[in-house]
Write a structure and sequence with these properties.
It is built from no helices and eight strands. The protein is an all-beta fold and about 160 residues long. Strands 1, 2, 3, 4, 5, 6, 7 and 8 form an eight-stranded antiparallel β-sheet that branches. Strand 4 and strand 5 form a beta hairpin.
Length: about 160
């Protein structure tokens, strides 16, 4: 799956005794889509997430790199494709089964993530890397939870 994430966060200095640490809220809207291309005729997949949680960031004293960690929770609307066994196989390299969107609808979602931002200018950072591990909690309908792992990069525009 691929997509974009829009968000806003507010960094507030944590303590006068620790001037290089900030703490504040982060709000994100993620829009992702794709298809299960590993399977011939795979179903379309989508995930729309709204997440909120605390962000703890650090400013390194010498280099313009800012590591951060976050914990986010929220909700999502998802269509997750699965391969359902049906005994049909088109070739030796094609998995056996029919790809369908088995799961979908509104679910709870939680994430733990961290990354490195590098200051480029007064209002622009390069998000060098962000690693995110999340989980969709789908078990209320009898289906299993889904783990989400992403590795991403991008730009952060800071407002005055």
């Amino acid at each position: 799956m691929y997509g974009v994430t829009f968000g806003t966060y507010f960094d507030k200095h944590f303590s006068q005794h620790i001037p290089n640490m900030t703490l504040g809220p982060d709000f994100r809207l993620a829009l992702q889509s794709g298809s299960n291309s590993a399977y011939s005729g795979g179903p379309a997949q989508s995930l729309i997430s709204i997440l909120l949680g605390p962000r703890l960031a650090f400013k390194l004293p010498v280099v313009p790199i800012h590591p951060y960690i976050e914990g986010l929770i929220g909700g999502s609307d998802s269509q997750i494709g699965e391969l359902i066994p049906d005994g049909y196989q088109t070739s030796a390299n094609t998995p056996r089964g029919t790809a369908i969107n088995k799961n979908g609808g509104g679910t709870m979602e939680g994430h733990v993530l961290g990354g490195l931002d590098m200051k480029i200018s007064k209002h622009l950072d390069w998000r060098m890397v962000e690693f995110n591990y999340g989980k969709l909690f789908l078990s209320a309908g009898g289906t299993p939870d889904y783990g989400l792992t992403t590795l991403s990069t991008g730009f952060v525009v800071r407002l005055p």
